[in-house]
């Protein structure tokens, strides 16, 4: 039994173990075997599964049409510090029972924001000290921290992109405190998600100034963290819209272009969220491919959207086809650079039993594990790789290679076109590729 606080919050549930795909125990992993080696690494090393503090221990199931349905025992104390300690006890019990090694947080997930900036600073320092001890006792690590610079009404027009300097300054102070907490907890990375860094209307927006201010803000945040000894990665988490009509970190390509423009590409990488990718009208695998091609595949937030809804539903991943295609890109890219797989997902509003959050995370981990096993089998034991290489074989020798090496000019291409005449069609064999994936799942 794993209990790290004064009481057991998830009673009757022990540590979740791997029992294999033939097990009928709902509280056991069927595919996620932490020590199993796949493509040279254990599953645990590939994924570095992390629990999202905000959804798992803060989110109570509310939606625009009604209040929350999950009543957490750790929210009962009226004393903010005691409530935060109770939440931390529950969090570390849950993470330990899941057998995961990491968690992620926003600053005010850890403890309720104070009435003043000074009070918030005091509270965050106190709970950071408490969680530091929890980490020591459990061996659980911090994958990344971040600051919630989007929920408070002061950020209704953005934080780093706010037209009011004093609001930007307040955000800077808040990010400093979140960085301090992340560094104190030996966080391996730090994330910036621009929840309101964008615009509702271009009529009252100077986009150029806002982008410049955001670039300057990130530069100063990076410089401060480095001056304090932080050696980890900074991540940008793209999202196209919601809550803003348009957000400046629209997708991986947009974020990468922004980072390069402001000279931040050596310190920042991309944290890709599945549901954000689909909101941008991309696939999960597309966003991974774009980031990997740029050498910026940093971390993943694992969830999914509802195919009938046009907003961020943050459901737990269960689409094995989608995740398998993503894991093909993941393995070809050599995995993640610094980050891990964070379950930025929430149980449904009508899931109200304490065990439901275990079932959700078990399913999510098993989906990623099964997809990884399938992708590895496709790469090593099917014609998939050869078929892909054959499609581009004309660039491996002769004139094609000369072009790829930059040795042919446009006049050369013109001459070759004249010599070749009309060309036969060559099939892309898309259905065959799709069948190979289905065959191996």
Automatic annotation (TrEMBL):
<dbReference type="GO" id="GO:0005737">
    <property type="term" value="C:cytoplasm"/>
</dbReference>
<feature type="binding site">
    <location>
        <position position="237"/>
    </location>
    <ligand>
        <name>Mg(2+) 1</name>
    </ligand>
</feature>
<dbReference type="GO" id="GO:0042732">
    <property type="term" value="P:D-xylose metabolic process"/>
</dbReference>
<feature type="binding site">
    <location>
        <position position="344"/>
    </location>
    <ligand>
        <name>Mg(2+) 1</name>
    </ligand>
</feature>
<keyword id="KW-0859">Xylose metabolism</keyword>
<feature type="binding site">
    <location>
        <position position="314"/>
    </location>
    <ligand>
        <name>Mg(2+) 2</name>
    </ligand>
</feature>
<dbReference type="InterPro" id="IPR036237">
    <property type="entry name" value="Xyl_isomerase-like_sf"/>
</dbReference>
<feature type="binding site">
    <location>
        <position position="276"/>
    </location>
    <ligand>
        <name>Mg(2+) 2</name>
    </ligand>
</feature>
<keyword id="KW-0413">Isomerase</keyword>
<keyword id="KW-0479">Metal-binding</keyword>
<comment type="similarity">
    <text>Belongs to the xylose isomerase family.</text>
</comment>
<feature type="binding site">
    <location>
        <position position="301"/>
    </location>
    <ligand>
        <name>Mg(2+) 1</name>
    </ligand>
</feature>
<dbReference type="GO" id="GO:0009045">
    <property type="term" value="F:xylose isomerase activity"/>
</dbReference>
<feature type="active site">
    <location>
        <position position="109"/>
    </location>
</feature>
<feature type="binding site">
    <location>
        <position position="273"/>
    </location>
    <ligand>
        <name>Mg(2+) 2</name>
    </ligand>
</feature>
<keyword id="KW-0119">Carbohydrate metabolism</keyword>
<dbReference type="GO" id="GO:0000287">
    <property type="term" value="F:magnesium ion binding"/>
</dbReference>
<protein>
    <recommendedName>
        <fullName>Xylose isomerase</fullName>
        <ecNumber>5.3.1.5</ecNumber>
    </recommendedName>
</protein>
<keyword id="KW-0460">Magnesium</keyword>
<keyword id="KW-0963">Cytoplasm</keyword>
<comment type="subunit">
    <text>Homotetramer.</text>
</comment>
<dbReference type="InterPro" id="IPR001998">
    <property type="entry name" value="Xylose_isomerase"/>
</dbReference>
<feature type="binding site">
    <location>
        <position position="273"/>
    </location>
    <ligand>
        <name>Mg(2+) 1</name>
    </ligand>
</feature>
<feature type="active site">
    <location>
        <position position="106"/>
    </location>
</feature>
<dbReference type="InterPro" id="IPR013452">
    <property type="entry name" value="Xylose_isom_bac"/>
</dbReference>
<feature type="binding site">
    <location>
        <position position="312"/>
    </location>
    <ligand>
        <name>Mg(2+) 2</name>
    </ligand>
</feature>
